[in-house]
């Protein structure tokens, strides 16, 4: 675990289970986090019937939720202790249908400012083919 300024251990930086526990909607979605830092987050989501639209295709809303949640996590991990974040804008391009298997979301921070963070999330299928790309802006919420 990474030490905080006060010398305490900060579970945000390495404990992916604690991160998911702090985000109940991520648990509901069923995503797992493989890697989490302020620079990069890698998460997985299994294709499931309850996340699909007609024809067994992963619903676009599920893909956007997956990307938004992963992006928010990346933004959060780079914030000062006690700060929070909220999505203020999001743009998703959907490239191909997700029909089966495991999806992987890889998020990286593009910009970190005093009042906002911009992140980009690429979602790929088991074969590494692009499924979607989301760019979002997260507000930095301090002392609310």
Structure description:
By secondary structure, the protein is of the alpha+beta class. The chain has a single domain, classed as Hotdog Thioesterase (Thiol Ester Dehydrase, Chain A, Roll). The chain contains three helices and eight strands; from the N terminus they run ββααββαββββ. A six-stranded antiparallel beta sheet has the order 3-4-6-7-8-5. It has a two-stranded antiparallel ribbon with strand order 1-2. A hairpin with a 3-residue loop joins β3 and β4. The radius of gyration is 15 Å and the shape is globular.
Describe what is shown at a glance.
The protein has about 140 residues and is of the alpha+beta class. The protein is built from 3 helices and 8 strands. A hairpin with a 5-residue loop joins strand 1 (about 1-5) and strand 2 (about 10).
